[in-house]
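Morning run. Coffee first, then this:
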Amino acid sequence: MEKAQIFIITALTVYATIMATIGCLSYKQSKTLDGFLLGGRKIGGWATAFSYGTTYFSAVVFVGYAGQHGWNIGIGAIWIGLGNAILGCLLSWLLFANKTRKMTKKLNAKTMSDYFEKRYNSKGMKILAAIIIFVFLVPYSAAVYKGLGSLFSAVFPNVETWVWMLIIACLTAVYLVAGGYLATSYTDLIQGIVMLIGVICLVIAVLTNDAVGGIGGFIERLGNFESLPNDPNPVTGSQLTNIFGGSAFKFLCVNIMLTSFGTWGLPQMVGKFYAIKDKEAIKRGTIISTIFCLVIGCGAYLIGSTSRLILGGVLPEGGIDAVIPTLLMKVLGNGTFGIILLAIIIILLLSASMSTLEAVVLTSASAVAVDLIPAVSKKEISPKKQMTLTRILCLAFVACSFIFATQNIPIIVSLMSFSWGIVSGCFIGPYIWGLFSKKITKIGAFAGIISGLLTVGGATLVISLTSSFSNAASKSPEMGVIAMAVSLVVVPIVSLITKNKTTQKEKEHVEEIFACYAEE
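And here it is:
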């Protein structure tokens, strides 16, 4: 094992050096606020596609979602990966990419909060959105840290988990603060290629493992699987091989909707469309990102569904979060080829997580520096000062997320689900309806944000008081899906009721905005 650790540390050192170098080289092109946050709106299709995909899939997907759902549901969990690719990626690009690019360029909006202010002519909405982003994306990034920490602890059991999380935080901060969005786009392209190679190699290694026996053996052995007598969550072989998830069908559908439609309202995902260069780049990006998500998403859940066979039906000591790390060590822990592949997989998961972290950190820091502080400050803040402040807040957000991640909150899937649900539940209605309809009012958009916040926040408070917070966290996927649906319904209904309160000046403002769709 010592040989493997030395090889992995060497590979990680080379990788970290490349990432830091890219950040430093991108510094000169990130000296303006627009360049730091959006890369000058000149990012090509390939870079944007990989940036979208790598932000979508972090270590939480592999270590958390794929581990938990693959273990409990079986091959039916692959539907989550398929749903993410079709609904969360393909449909999102087809419906929103071009309209978002055009409207945010017309409004000169750099962030989601900035978009809300200029689309609905409301500084109050900008402030509220910025607060929601900064507060509720901390658990999101903390979940990513915890996912990576679980993985590195399995490979290096003698090193405390927090040490690895600190190293990851420092590395992310270095190239993000130096190079901004441009650096993240370049690094995402490299990280995406690593992820594709790693997942394909890992799927082959897992399926050819003696415990799995190839695709044919996998289905047969999983179908004959019997839980151990002391298994706290026993399942049958028929459950694990049921293509529609068997008794977990409802649970499966909820998670498909949360992780797929949730991307439609997440500012770190939507922000990719702000920076893409042109319509041709969008066409390329749509195809590339969909293929990427199909390979990564379906591959991750396929790997997770083999976990009971490879681990002999014994849940690891670290619980459900330790399923994938333990599986990796069992499959790749021996032999030179296995060690090389393990190093690739470690870098794969590091790449996936760092790309997600950089997007979340940049989104959150800009929400405060560009949106919140100028909105509440009585003095005008220059773009140069805003950029400096954004860099400082990137460091602060990384630190907050790291501290949150070191707390004893064991279930990383619940952390991610809670963050996805509340942020997307607040923004999905005002964002989407704002792109497509001239009839959406400021009051309607406000109602969408507040209704999403109250749906998740209210339900969490009630369940926590009557039961426990952990029970509320376990219900986070359902709360998130309901919040998104409520937001999408409330926005047009309240807008219809309040349409008479719209002034002629506001109507002219909306007409001017929507003229952007006819300008190209």
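The radius of gyration is 22 Å. Good start to the day.
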